[in-house]
Amino acid sequence: MKIVIAPDKFKNSLTGMDFCEAVETALKQFDSNIEILKLPLADGGDGTIEVVNYYLKGETIQLTVNNPFFEPAKASYLYAESSKKAFIEMAEASGVKLLQPEQFDCKNATTLGTGELILDAIKRGAETIILGIGGSATNDCGIGMATALGYRFLDDNEDEVKPIGANLSQIKSIDESQVHPRLKAVDFQIACDVTNPLYGKNGAAYGYGAQKGASVQDIKLLDKGLFDFSKVLEATFNVKVQSVKGAGAAGGMGIGSKLFLNGHLAQGINLIKDLADFDYKIKGADWIITGEGKLDAQTLSGKTIKGVLESAKAMQIKVAAFCGATDFEGKSPEELGIQYADAVMNYTTNLEDAMKNSHQYLKEITKKFAHEVLK
């Protein structure tokens, strides 16, 4: 029997590798002959970098870059010399995690530091760069990132504009003559899990500006900037900006990474599955055991378990979901494509106990599954 263990993390409780270890231990105690394959996954959010390095086997590169307010900050990314692949999270250089809540001010924030990480990876010889664009503190449409790579954003007087969201309306033209010569040779894969357009009521500013420190007036200013700048982008790149799904992700970094990097926007889970060679490795499996902190309707709209279910269904592999908590909202697990489901909260009513002892509860869940299903 072949069983694949392919979970996401339980946030603030278990890493994906912790999950794999707990389930493997319990399965081996039940039957030491079970073939077990550990393929931890992530969807591009917190904790993705550890999962990526499980497959990338790269080294952590640390350098000093500009933080969202042009101040020096240490940031790191992964680079594997053997495969010439890099994994960069924009949150490392341009994220809210670098700031205190009272510092949030996306109209004056820049993605320059993210561009500096990309530039360093290019100089090291990266041929593929996976860029995660979650957790940003910015709304500059990626012009900071692009500035680090040699793009120049010019006003009516052909003076260079400071690359922040508040200045987007000032930009009248884009000079590409000094762009790094290797930029176009790199394959950029962008982990993007939102589908917001660039501007308008569902756009970057109205959708996410407030949680990044923007006032009502700031949001109007930023939205107008995104609208005005979209016309410059359309004239330069011949793309209908507002029709691009995910253009408004990360304060416009979605469209910025697509156009300035010639990047391909994809769901984070699909990029991680590709990196893991997931669909090839699960062939012949009898079960895939997956899980994450909470399984609900949102889980199935682009998160890790949805990615597992898509692959499992295509190969007719049964799926078991071991989670912290579940809410199927009136549906049965089978309706969602899950043949077996259990949750830590079925074993305790105390959330603190569940968080603290999830490793042990996961072993209990696995033992119960083995005796009921694998007997």
TrEMBL record:
Q: Does the keyword Phosphoprotein apply?
A: no
Recorded GO molecular functions are: glycerate kinase activity
Keywords from the named record: Kinase, Transferase
Q: Name one GO biological process term.
A: organic acid phosphorylation
* Transferase keyword on record: yes
- PANTHER family this protein is in? GLYCERATE KINASE
Protein family per UniProt: Belongs to the glycerate kinase type-1 family.
Q: What is this protein called?
A: Glycerate kinase
Species of the source? Hyunsoonleella aquatilis
